[in-house]
Write a structure and sequence with these properties.
59% helix, elongated, alpha+beta, single chain
Length: 73
């Protein structure tokens, strides 16, 4: 288990006892878009990181649906 903390506009948010691999994935994903866990972040950076990750997730969901449809045919 691992704790994850992020500071946004001077307010620190902490989540305790996340699965280690999931916490590492979240940290790496956020850092990819410039959101750092060890410094203060602007709301805009977090919002853009969320949108980019949501877009990746949405694309993966569409690809999975397309694969399932192609198998069913």
């Amino acid at each position: 288990m691992k704790d994850l903390a992020i500071t946004i506009n001077g307010v620190r948010y902490k989540v305790k006892d996340l699965d280690f691999h999931f916490a590492k994935f979240v940290e790496e994903s956020l850092e990819e878009y410039g959101v750092m866990t060890n410094r203060d972040n602007k709301v805009e950076k977090l919002f853009f990181a969320y949108l980019n990750l949501a877009q990746k997730y949405h694309k993966q969901e569409q690809e999975i649906e397309d694969l399932v449809k192609s198998i069913e045919l």
